[in-house]
Design goal:
Layout (H helix, E strand, L loop, with lengths): L3 E4 L4 H11 L3 H9 L5 H8 L15 H13 L3 E6 L3 H15 L5 E4 L12 H9 L2 E7 L6 H9 L3 E5 L13 E3 L15 H16 L4 H4 L2 H10 L6 H16 L3 H9 L8 H18 L3 H8 L3 H35 L9 E4 L8 H11 L4 E7 L2 E7 L6 H7 L6 E4 L3 E6 L4 H15 L8 E4 L1 E2 L7 H8 L13 E8 L4 E3 L3 E8 L2 E7 L6 H5 L4 E12 L2 E13 L2
Parallel strand pairs: 1-12, 2-3, 2-4, 4-5, 5-6, 7-8, 13-14, 17-19
Antiparallel strand pairs: 8-9, 9-11, 10-11, 14-16, 14-18, 15-16, 16-17, 18-19
Helix pairs in contact: 1-2, 4-8, 5-8, 5-10, 5-14, 8-10, 10-11, 10-13, 12-15, 13-15, 14-15, 15-16
């Protein structure tokens, strides 16, 4: 698939000014400026994040109300239910806050809704469970901001809600006793990008301050916060950067038994980065809710006995193996369906439907199909009497708006810019697919159907030194709004030693002027003729370290290449 290369512009004046105060490579200064780090103080906070720089939790609207209501529950011996969503952000948030409160007030329990029986977010079954078991305070994490009717219903049963959420609020807010969400219009909290677990973390901070507890009472849950930040794909800037930085430190030095058990089963590397959390830990946690019941993810996170934690981790590991099997066989079937239909060639969307596909993996399959056919994609399956599906978008295209335009064919839908879900009647599948194709074809700019590679800067092989890499490494943790820098080097040539390895991958040995570097291009064997052509090529890559037999060397991780102009 051809890709668009987008080399970001540089602000040389700001870059030069930053270089004078930091004395590091100009290319790195330019990248920092692109990311909003344009003076010495911002650079200090970026490279040396401190937990003491976290904002006061009391700046968040309703924090005082939330803390007072929880303390009142302690005083009146009320039962407290900590309620969260079934994904990584929800389960880590519940595991942290539940342990924190339960440690001082035993009359506390937790509840995770079942993905298929109850659906996303606050559920009627959950509220009924609370009423039947005498809970009079529910603290919802990573959900609740849109549950106006359900929280109203809870009120009629004498149950109060504290909502801790980070999703965008609607105009009408639920009648909770306190709503902690920095995205509320009138909330003065300075950092708006916390995940659900991050909002729960701020509540623990406030409670510990009010009750005169040590900082350790909430800092011990930093490893869970880092996993949530990684999995929920929130920007790794500001407070999230500090939480992720120290959370990763805890994951690597002293993880909770549950996280250690998951890492052992996954055969995780010695050092865990944000992307290891995204690709190693998060899928196993998410698999619990996708394939079965996410309650066991919380049980894993709160378990203090390593051997018991290992048995929960084995359940998640096994759910993940089932998830992988389902996702790869469905992806294969879906690709065959698309290839069989000649009309697919000219379409701007992909919509595929089979009754027997597993509902838990249709979203993952949609993302996989985009890797082959880069266009807005919906994967549908049968769910009882209805058809349910998941949609994924391509970068820059508002999927939610396109689905909203086809709502007359749907029973229900929800989501955001890049991902959405929907339910419809079986007889409406064809009409919906046609309406969706027409809407996307009408509104999508052609260039959005060609994947874009964003390139941070051009460098020469002579720039790629251990000192350069040392500063580059200190820009971690990488993630949204601070991605691992992508470089371009122009007019490089093959040394004659590049070769195909394991049939699919390319091992590069390239030269620019008199400097030779090696690199690896996964699934890039098809580009080998280009390398062999003996013509100069431009390469796009990231830089990492390769350890082989105890020796560390810098290597290029290839993203794309083409003939030089």
């Amino acid at each position: 698939m051809e890709k668009r290369w987008n080399i970001l512009p540089t602000n040389d004046v700001a870059g030069d000014s930053l270089r004078q105060s930091l004395n590091i490579h100009p290319v790195l200064c330019n990248i920092l400026v692109q990311r909003g780090v344009d003076d010495f103080e911002k650079a200090r906070q970026f490279f040396r994040p401190q937990l003491s720089d976290l904002h006061s939790p009391w700046l968040m609207k309703d924090m005082d109300k939330a803390v007072d209501r929880i303390l009142a529950a302690f005083e009146k011996r009320e039962k407290i239910l900590v309620f969260g969503d079934y994904d990584v952000d929800g389960t880590t948030a519940v595991a942290s806050l539940y342990q924190f409160i339960q440690g001082m007030y035993p009359d506390t329990d937790f509840y995770i809704p079942h993905r298929y029986r109850e659906g996303y977010g606050v559920s009627k079954m959950g509220i009924d469970f609370a009423a039947e078991n005498g809970f009079s305070l529910i603290i919802s994490l990573d959900c609740g901001i849109k549950s106006v009717d359900l929280i109203t219903y809870a009120k009629t049963l004498g149950i109060d809600f504290i909502v801790c959420d980070h999703h965008l609020p609607d105009t009408i807010l639920p009648p909770a006793v306190a709503i902690l969400n920095a995205k509320q219009k009138d909330c003065p909290y300075p950092y708006k990008e916390l995940c659900g677990c991050g909002v729960g973390f701020k509540l623990m901070m406030a409670l510990s301050e009010k009750m005169g507890l040590t900082e350790e009472s909430y800092l011990r849950y930093l490893d869970l916060a880092a996993i949530a930040i990684a999995a929920d794909i929130v920007p790794i800037t500001g407070e999230n950067r500090a939480l992720a930085f120290y959370g990763l430190k805890k994951v690597n030095e002293n993880p909770s038994p549950g996280i250690r058990a998951l890492m052992q089963l996954a055969g995780a590397q010695k050092y865990m980065s944000i992307s290891n959390l995204v690709f190693v830990i998060a899928p196993r946690v998410n698999a619990a809710g996708r394939m079965d019941d996410a309650r066991k993810a919380v049980q894993l996170f709160i378990e203090q006995d390593y051997n018991k934690a290992l048995s929960y981790a084995e359940m998640l590991h096994s759910d993940n193996a089932d998830r992988r099997e389902a996702d790869s066989s469905i992806t294969e079937e879906a690709l065959a369906l698309i290839e069989k239909d000649p009309s697919n060639k000219n379409k701007k969307t992909t919509v595929v439907y089979q009754e027997h596909w597993h509902k838990g993996v249709v979203g993952i399959v949609a993302s996989r199909l985009i890797e082959t056919y880069y266009r807005p994609t919906i994967v549908l399956t049968r769910s009882g009497d209805y058809v349910a599906g998941s949609a994924r978008s391509v970068a820059g295209f508002n999927l939610y708006e396109a689905i909203h335009a086809c709502r007359e064919n749907l029973l229900g839908y929800g989501g955001h810019f890049a991902a959405a879900g929907m339910t419809l009647l079986p007889e409406k599948v064809t009409a919906f697919a046609e309406a969706f194709e027409a809407e996307v074809a009408r509104t999508i700019p052609g260039e959005l159907l060609i994947p874009e590679i964003v390139i941070d800067a051009e460098i020469r092989f002579s720039d790629i030194t251990p000192a350069f890499y040392n500063i580059l490494s200190q820009m971690e943790p990488f993630g949204p709004d601070n991605m691992r820098p992508v470089f371009i080097a122009k007019k490089v040539s093959d040394t004659g030693f590049s070769k195909i390895v394991k049939e699919q991958h390319l091992r590069f040995v390239l030269r620019q002027q008199n400097i030779t570097l090696t690199g690896i291009g996964f699934n890039m064997a098809s580009k080998y003729p280009l390398v062999q052509s003996n013509k100069p090529i431009d390469i796009v890559f990231t830089i990492d370290e390769n350890e082989w037999q105890g020796e560390k060397n810098l290597q290029l991780k290839m993203v794309d290449l083409r003939l030089s102009e």
